[in-house]
Design goal:
The protein is α/β, with parallel strands linked by helices. It contains 15 helices and 18 strands. It folds into three domains: 144 residues, Thiol Ester Dehydrase, Chain A, CATH 3.10.129; 118 residues, 3-Layer(aba) Sandwich (Rossmann fold), CATH 3.40.50; 152 residues, Isopropylmalate Dehydrogenase. The termini are far apart.
């Protein structure tokens, strides 16, 4: 590790100098924007920046100020130095990939250990981009200190759901029944989605209780339709009836148990069942994966047999088509990537692949069994010698059972900090199955998924799938 050593006031002489060279990278620009909150589009948006007088993206001016501070605080005078003031004039823009030499020089020693430092910044063409001065209080004792090792920094792009929400806004606003919305989080999510024109919320639940919750959270729900029901069971039944009659386009789970919510939907009298088994998908937005990734089924079918997996797979493929993926790649997960007669998940994977070959599953490319590492990572797939038509680049992960899927999705969301919006497929209307732990952002994305699902159904003219 580097050793940081200073120069005391007595050791400094006029003309002493120090310098460093640093290239401004696009990563530096993003990092400075995150740290400072300065999201001026001149620094971050190439299309906008092209229309400015600089005709392209430029770095933040105070990035140069930070480099000057680096020199003063670590080199000259070094540790123990106190900043008093900084005067800096910006003379020319610094662009991505410019190589900047920053120099500080002792210009004057004043009373009370004050030192005036001359500061300059020049680019690779020897053009002065900034110059000025800094007044500091130099240290009065020698300090020698090992430099602190800094942590790695990872950028996590959260734009995936923004693109999904923008796509959903291109469709008409949907009426959505919020089933028993007896929490402030659910009501806030409804208001946010309504404000974004993603849905027209219809609140179905005990009216007085909902109003009290809204008042306590200072939420204005006066503009939302409210249908009074006595309890959660009645809320679910009434919402299913609204969907059957076409008064709402989809249902969104509120403050009731998942089994109670689904029981009302699958009841024969509700009229919302189809020939397909219902299944759940998560659409995961991960900064570590280059495209949207669906994971299914992590919430509905506990121990699916082969016939159920066929429906789970086809539901996900059809929905991927609605997201604009013409031929989705489906990785069928197991513990290993070879067929093992003692592991049912591998046998099911092999059967599903053969059924796709025989067009019993249509519209996607299937491969399996695949272990998670070689399903998701191209290098792991290459090392195992697996064909690259799916391995390393799937659009859909088909898990062997609910237990495995639930563990996987929670690891992705709670440890890898990925976003996961969920939807139930296979009924006559898509069902928004949110969790109490879901953020408002995730709830919004789940509504956007339902909007896509409803309009996908209209585009296909297929009411049974």
């Amino acid at each position: 590790m580097a050793l940081l050593e200073n120069r005391t006031y007595e050791q400094l002489a006029v003309g002493d100098s120090a310098s460093l060279v640093r290239m401004l990278t696009p990563r530096d620009i993003k990092l400075y924007a995150v740290m400072s909150g300065d999201i001026n589009p001149a620094h971050l948006n190439p299309a906008y920046a092209a229309e400015t007088r600089f005709e392209g993206v430029v770095g933040h001016g105070m990035w140069l100020g930070a480099l000057i501070s680096t020199l003063i605080g670590t080199r000259l005078p070094g540790p123990g130095t106190e900043y008093v003031s900084q005067d800096l004039k910006f003379l020319a823009p610094v662009r991505p990939d410019d190589r900047i030499e920053v120099k500080v020089e002792v210009a004057e020693k004043q009373a009370d250990r004050r030192v005036l430092m001359r500061c300059s910044c020049r680019n690779q063409d020897n053009v002065s981009v900034a110059e000025g001065s800094a007044l500091v209080i130099a240290p009065d004792r020698a300090i020698s200190h090992q430099a602190q090792e800094l942590p790695d920094i990872e950028f996590r792009d959260r734009a995936g759901y923004d693109r999904l929400i923008r796509a959903a806004k291109s469709y008409p606003t949907l009426p959505v029944a919020l089933v028993h919305p007896c929490s402030a989080v659910v009501l806030q999510g409804a208001l946010d989605a309504a404000k974004e024109d993603l849905m027209r919320p219809v609140l179905v639940g005990p009216a007085e209780r909902i109003k009290r919750i809204a008042d306590a959270a200072e939420l204005d729900i006066s503009g939302l339709q409210l249908i009074d029901t006595p309890h959660s069971h009645a809320s679910a039944e009434r919402s299913a009836a609204l969907a059957k009659d076409g008064e709402v386009a989809t249902l969104m789970k509120g403050s009731l148990h998942t089994d109670e919510f689904l029981r009302a939907v699958i009841a024969r009298e509700a009229g919302l069942r189809t020939d397909r088994r219902m299944s759940h998908i998560y659409l995961v937005s991960s900064p570590d994966y280059p495209k949207p990734l669906m994971v299914t089924d992590c919430a509905i079918n506990v121990a699916p047999d082969l016939a159920t997996k066929v429906d789970i797979c086809q539901n996900a493929i059809d929905f991927a088509h609605g997201l604009g993926i013409a031929e989705p790649k489906v990785a069928i997960l197991a513990a290993v990537e070879k067929v093992n007669l003692h592991m049912q998940a591998t046998l099911d994977a092999a059967a599903l692949c053969k059924m796709a070959d025989r067009r019993q599953i249509k519209g996607g490319v299937l491969d399996g069994p695949l272990a998670f590492d070689n399903a998701i990572d191209p290098e792991a797939a290459r090392i195992k010698g697996l064909p690259d038509r799916v391995a390393g680049q799937p659009d859909i992960l088909l898990v062997p059972d609910l237990e495995a899927g639930n563990i996987l999705i929670k690891q992705m969301t709670f440890m890898a900090d990925d976003d996961a919006a969920g939807l139930v497929l296979g009924a006559r209307v898509p069902l928004i199955l949110t969790s109490r732990a879901d953020s408002l952002r995730t709830r919004m994305a789940s509504v956007a998924l339902a909007v896509v699902g409803c309009n996908m159904r209209k585009d296909k003219g297929d009411e049974d799938h």
